[in-house]
Amino acid sequence: MTELRSILDEAVRQELISPEAGVRLLPFLTERGVVIAEAQPAMEAEGQAWSDTETPRFVRGFHDVLITIGVVVALGGLWGLAALYAVLPAIIVLSEILVRRQRLALPAVSLTIALFCWTFVLMSFFFKPGTSAFNDIGAEATQFVAGFPIILGLYYARYRVPLALALCITSALALVLTLLLRLMQWASGDPQFFANHPLLLAVVFLVCALGLFATALYFDLGDRLRRTTRSDIAFWLHLGAAPALLFSVRLLMSFDGNLLNVAQAVSIKTPIIVISVVVLMLIGLVIDRRAFVTSGLLSLGFAIYGIFRQGSATVDTYIFTTLIVVGAIVLIIGTGWMPLRRIVLRALPAAISQRLPPAVLGATP
């Protein structure tokens, strides 16, 4: 039944049937004893069903790209001419046509991002948490974040866009973070509690980042062969989990209150950042998520930049050397992804490797 559901989900994704038809067909076919025949050995069938587990489903052709350009230009013009409240009806109308009826993937992503930006502007208009949000967690900070999971959750319930659910989950975790910080601040009785205890703030951030990563793994491991929308949701969650983890590690080493100065390089901090990125790359190999690796490369660039900056190299030298090193790492990982994965999976216990996406010999990196 699980295999049949996966096939119907794929038919919906390819616009062969409507989502409503897919829901009605599953019990209809199951009651009549329809089964999926396995005419091939398991590993051979798995290799054919799974050739590249991270093919982005939000890019299906230039038709989607053309429609997306039109959506971005039209909403940009409307945003500049009309009031804020006129943008939301436009997003809803376009979503009804392009997402619910035509099932266009890339326009769905662009409309979800537009809704996220609209929500940000709306929340900023009513609630202004201020620049000292990390020092004094007030009620407005919580109210500002609270609007995102509600609006994005309603959008996902209507249009089933994976990015919308990923953003809803991420914003919900951010809401939990602000509530936890406010509770700790209230219990201490000190409005500047986190300014006086930056290490504790860093630990709280790290716990929430690990929670986001665990949520991404929950969706990922539930779809080992990456055939359903669970894989798409996990893709977006991983894209946000890696920077969150790196930021948390960076925060653990920053006790001067300057939380967002990612270009700062101290001799003891830069190697730790490099090691952290290497660990994240290894995790990305294990779970077969290039997105998880890619999102950490920017921080790796800053770290390598810091290493060369501490030396005697000139400005031009360490900038271009950083680009060469990061580019070489990307090429090595990109071209040797599957051989590296096979090496890593062989070193893992069978109980773990069998729950992960397979490293098929014929798969393309």
Protein model, in words:
The protein contains 17 helices and no strands. The protein starts with a helix and ends in a 12-residue tail after the last helix. The C terminus is likely disordered. It has 365 residues and is an all-alpha fold.
Secondary structure elements and pairings:
Elements: H1 2-13, H2 19-31, H3 42-49, H4 62-81, H5 84-101, H6 105-126, H7 139-159, H8 162-188, H9 193-196, H10 198-221, H11 229-252, H12 269-287, H13 290-294, H14 297-310, H15 315-335, H16 337-346, H17 350-353
Helix pairs in contact: 1-2, 4-5, 4-6, 5-6, 6-7, 6-8, 7-8, 8-10, 8-11, 10-11, 11-12, 12-14, 14-15
Total E-strand runs: 0
Measured as a percent range, the helix fraction is over 70%
- Radius of gyration based on Cα positions: 23 Å
The low-pLDDT segments are 37-51, 131-135, 256-268, 361-365
- Average the pLDDT over all residues and give the rounded result: 77
Largest sheet data: none
User: Would you tell me the structural class of the helices and strands?
Assistant: mainly alpha
Order of helices and strands: HHHHHHHHHHHHHHHHH
Span of the ends, CA to CA = 30 Å
- Percent of residues in β-strands: under 5%
Number of helices: 17
Q: Give the overall form.
A: globular
How would you summarize what this structure contains?
With 365 residues, this protein is mainly alpha-helical.
